[in-house]
Amino acid sequence: MNNPVYSTVIDLVHRIETTQSEAIEAAAKAMVETILNGGLIQAYGAGHSFAGALELCHRAGGLIPTKAIKEPSGGQYETVEGVGSLFVKKVDIRPEDTVVVISNSGRNPLPIELAYGVKAKGATLIVITAVEASKHLPSKHSSGKNLYQLGDIVLDNLVEEGDAMIELPRSKTKVCGMSMMTTSLIIQALTYRVAELLEDQGLMAPIYRSQNIDGGRAFNEALEAPLVDRLNRL
Length: 234
Known about the structure:
- This protein is α/β, with parallel strands linked by helices.
- The protein has a single domain, classed as Rossmann fold (3-Layer(aba) Sandwich).
- Helices cover 42% and strands 13% of the residues.
- Strands 2-1-3-4-5 form a 5-stranded parallel beta sheet, with helices on both faces.
- A hairpin with a 6-residue loop joins strand 6 and strand 7.
- Helix 1 packs parallel to helix 6 and helix 3 runs parallel beside helix 4.
- The longest helix is centred in the first third of the chain and has 33 residues.
- The mean pLDDT is 95.
């Protein structure tokens, strides 16, 4: 039985590689600068896109100076203007930081206002969104902007409007959201390139070891120590 999920994912992988390499390189260089300057790489994902933030932050095989931005309501008020502006005031974002904001549609006020706040605080803003799909979706924010219009660096996850990309033959219903597949791919490509660039400079990349490996926790805590106050702060 032919399952189109596999061919769809393979096609997206090739398209990400051929169309996003330049933007991934720019994003990786920004992250390297953040690490060298003692800053944090922070990530926020709106709604289900929070899974993308977790893919980048505080995970085995990932970069140590990273923190997921956790909005207290879990995105319940993502479409309410003003919530993001209030929330971002409380988030510890500094000019030496890089902040990744992830939203597939890129049209809702909370991630848009978080993006404005990141820029106001002088940090580098990286956006992961579905660029072409978002261009056809009017903003729900009074600025009239969608997220892809705000990023210093924009990474396109290449998924279609509505995220689901595989049509069932009888009902014509589209199933299988692909944004987490491509977002995770982009993030892992970024992680590898950041580590490679640091090693090119003769530096050890600060990478988390699994806490399920003997000595992993102690190794991680030693590398976390210079940033532990920031890692534990909102």
